[in-house]
Amino acid sequence: MRNPIEAKELSRTFGDLVAVDGINLSVAKGEVFGFLGPNGAGKSTAVRMLTTLLKPTSGQAWVAGHNVMSSAGAVRKRIGVALQDAAIDPLMTGNELLKLQSVLHGIPKRKARARCGELLETVGLTAAGDRRVGTYSGGMRRRLDLALSLVHEPEVLFLDEPTTGLDPTSRVALWDEVRKLNQEIGTTVFLTTQYLEEADQLAQRIAIIDEGRIVREGSPSVLKNQVGAPTLRVDVWEKDYNAAKATMAHFGEERPARKGRIAIGLNAGTRGITVVLKALEDKSIEVQHVELDEPSLDDVFADATGRRLEGGESA
Q1: What is the DSSP letter of 12?
Q2: 305 contact partners, CB below 8 Å, separation of at least 6
Q3: What is the rounded distance in angstroms from the CA atom of residue 20 to the CA atom of residue 43?
Q4: pLDDT tens, 30-70?
Q5: Phi, psi of 152 (to 5 degrees)
Q6: Which of 64, 243, 288, 311 has the most beta carbons within 10 angstroms of its beta carbon?
């Protein structure tokens, strides 16, 4: 029996552009799987192929036990999809949209009425159910979109950057809803995101995609442990930059950092920070800012690609 999501050598090209380049995926039942990468990495293209919205150029994929090309209809009946560019009619109420979605899925009226009430409660919109969607905040719209994708009780839920543009409070609220769905109902979730914290908070396992290829895969904790040493970041005056970089090179391997900042993997761990600062002081190098961070998913991405996930400079 196949896993809820499987892909083998899945690729998609647009003319000369290779958007997704032979990726292999396997997502287990009941898993929250994070698909992490920067804008343009191929995340949304991969999701559109897995949800039958875009035909692969080559390779194969199966979702909910069905081939996405030869059995697209069967796949669509078994999945829920909340895309980042979903259009929701602002003149309809939340209740009306949920009832319409129920009709489209062929759910009997009595069951649909109960289901709509349950979903509004699940996403915290019961009090706003009879308000026009045009009056909803961005976070409320995202939660309604999540409810719409769950009307037919899908086996697999695809969330494509669900919290993009949301304020921190709304983002955390949506995370809570995703956790609830996964833990209480057992829904398999495929989550694409460019937010490091989101992947770390929600996903039991992640794959990092860059330029259409998967460059790392595993649990967040294992991937971070593989990076090893914590990252020491130091800001100095421009005139001292080269001297500081040469001095710090004795204490660990250089890591990608934004312009004007020096970063190393501190071999001695946290206890080594005072030694580095003393070495810089001995060279009469004034430190403007210093920080030490345990390995993060951004460090994992940097280790795999040579640059930071969020607009970092090339290594």
Answers
A1: E
A2: 210, 215
A3: 8
A4: 999 999 988 888 998 999 999 999 999 999 999 999 999 99
A5: -95, 15
A6: 64
